[in-house]
Amino acid sequence: MKKTLLTILILSILVLSGCRERQNIPIEKKPPIIEVIDEILADTTFNQKKHTKHFEQYISFWKKVFQTDPSITYVYYRNTNEILGKLKTRNGKTKEEQKKIDLMILDSIHTANGIKMPAKKRKRTYGIITGRLQKTTHAIEQSYKYLSMILYELKKANLPPSLALLPFIESSFNINVTSWAGAVGLWQFIESTGKHYGLVINDSIDQRLSPEHSTIAACKFIKENLNKFQKYPLIGFTAYNTGPNSEYFNDLDSLGQYKTILKMGFAPKHYFTSFIAAIRTFEEMWVQ
Hints:
This protein is mostly helical. The protein has two domains: 72-130; 133-285, Lysozyme. It contains 15 helices and three strands. The protein has helices at residues 2-23, 33-42, 53-66, 95-112, 119-125, 133-143, 147-156, 166-170, 191-196, 211-228, 233-242, 252-255, 257-262, 266-269, 271-285; strands at 72-77, 82-88, 126-130. Strands 2-1-3 form a three-stranded antiparallel sheet, with helices on both faces. It is globular. It starts with a helix and ends with a helix. 28% of the residues are buried.
């Protein structure tokens, strides 16, 4: 009886260790985190020295947001992301009180520019966004746990190393986060997309919460999108946010990738530029 139990225990350990080896990088193959980050930041597939004027303006905007303290809130012009002003802390104010303050700021900006317009149109023209330095710092710290594994899977899929920083804008490297749309985990898969790319999602298990499983699924999704839009790599990248069959892409051949992105809604329009801003912010802020 004792021998039987011992045999079962040994077999269980061997099976479990085998599963770990399939899911994780073998220990002897794990490079130091400095080497991993150097390889990620050296990749210029997406992070080119200079993009179009509008894109560089958006990238600068997101860098400022990522590196600004949460006590600062910016007022910006939606069409160009030009920052027009800022106000100190919104803490301790009700939504109604803050709304009045926000409208007063927008009114002062309009008055300074000799512009008068209805409140509804005014809200569509200008936006307000709060600094994310605290969230950025935490995301960078969290990323050290996962970058080696993500880079390993990207290499296996023959994908650009810089994509290892995509979870920065997806989840802030928080494996337990759930979005308002029901997207879950490091790579923010909704249930249908997760299942489509091989993740087990049911009442007892949700592999979107597994960094290894979700990374493998994300690599499949990204690779499929980049292959579909080979002529337009920025669209292939943005399709991770919009889905590959978005109506945004209907006029892609006539407009080209830059103009197509500029005509999108706020989130997809800023998806690529916020990613580049995340790479550049990571480069400036990560601690060796």
